[in-house]
Amino acid sequence: MNAVLQGHTASASALAALLHVDKVSLEYKTPQRVVRATHEVSFDVYPGDRFVLLGPSGCGKSTLLKSVAGFIEPSDGEIRLDGQRVSEPGPDRIVVFQEFDQLPPWKTVKQNVMFPLLASRTLKRREAEERALHYLEKVGLAAFADAYPHTLSGGMKARVAIARALAMQPKILLMDEPFAALDALTRRKMQEELLQLWDEVRFTLLFVTHSIEEALVVGNRILLLSPHPGRVRAEINAHPFDLNSLGGVDFQHTAQRIHRLLFDEDGELQVEPDLRFQDIRISN
Ligand SMILES: Nc1ncnc2c1ncn2[C@@H]1O[C@H](COP(=O)(O)OP(=O)(O)OP(=O)(O)O)[C@@H](O)[C@H]1O
Ligand SMILES: [Mg+2]
C-alpha cells in the first residue's frame, strides 16, 4: 500500500488548484434565526489530492460538501472548480453519501451504475453499459452486475455507490462519511480498497469524516475544523500514512497532534472517541 501513497502528486504548490474554496461562510435561515454553519473557510484541493475535512459533529463538514456540490450557495465567499464559479449541481461533482440504500432496489447493479450516465445524457446506452462494467470490475463487482441491491452486503453496496460515482468521471469525487454505517472490519477494508482504487484511477477526492484515524489513512491532506460556526483550525499533511502505519510512532504523533488541535477551549473531547486512538493515548 505504500506505493499507493508514495505515488502521490508532486509538490501541490507547483500545480493549479482544482477546487478553490475562498472565505466561504454558509448559513441556514430558519423562521426563528440564522444558523451560521461555517465562517470564512478557505482551502485549495489539487488534482489527485485526497483532501479530508475533519472535525466534530456540527462543524459544517456536510454543509461545506453540499456547497461544493452546488446545493447550497455561500452567504459569503466563493467556490471555484477548474476556474468556474460553482453555483449549481453538475456532473463534474458527484457525491457519495453514507446511506447506501440510496441505490434504487428495482434496478440491477449494472443499471444502477448506468443510470446517471444515461439520465445526464453523458453516454448512449451501449457506451454507458461498457463504462459501468469497467468500473464494476474496478471495484470487484463484475460478477454481480445483474444482481439486485437487496442481495448485496453493506460493503458491496458501498462499492456500487463508488463505481456509480466514478463512472461519471467527475472532476472531483465528494464523499460524506461514506463508510460510517459499516462495521469496523468492513470499514477498514473499504478504506483500503478506496486507496487501491485511487492508485489505479487517480481521481481527486474530497472526503468528510469525524474519525482521526480514518482521516489519516484516507487523506493526504487534512483540514481541521472547529465548530459553531466551522472555522479552519489547521491543515495537516497526512502523507505518507496508510493502513500499515496504524499504531506506528509517526502515526501516533500526528494523531495526537490532531487530537490536541481539536480539543475545545474547555478541554472536552470534540471528536469521535475512536477505539484505536484511545489505545494510542493509553500507551503513552
Ligand atoms: N437544514 C438545516 N437547517 C438549519 N440548520 C442546519 C441544517 N443542517 C445543518 N444545520 C446546522 O448547521 C451546522 C453544521 O451542520 P453540518 O451537518 O454541516 O455538520 P457536520 O460537521 O456535517 O456534522 P456531523 O459530523 O454530525 O455530520 C450545525 O450547527 C447544524 O445544526
Ligand atoms: Mg455531516
TrEMBL record:
Taxonomy, superkingdom: Bacteria
GO molecular function: ATP binding; ATP hydrolysis activity
Keyword Nucleotide-binding assigned: yes
Every ABC transporter domain range: 19-252
Record-linked PROSITE patterns: ABC_TRANSPORTER_1, ABC_TRANSPORTER_2
Entries under Pfam families matching the protein: ABC_tran
InterPro entries from the UniProt entry: AAA+_ATPase, ABC_transporter-like_ATP-bd, ABC_transporter-like_CS, ABC_transporter_ATP-bind, P-loop_NTPase
Entry-linked SMART domains: AAA (SM00382)
Cross-referenced Gene3D superfamilies: P-loop containing nucleotide triphosphate hydrolases (3.40.50.300)
Keywords: ATP-binding, Nucleotide-binding, Transport
Similarity-based family: Belongs to the ABC transporter superfamily.
Name under which the protein is recorded: NitT/TauT family transport system ATP-binding protein
Source organism per UniProt: Pseudomonas kuykendallii
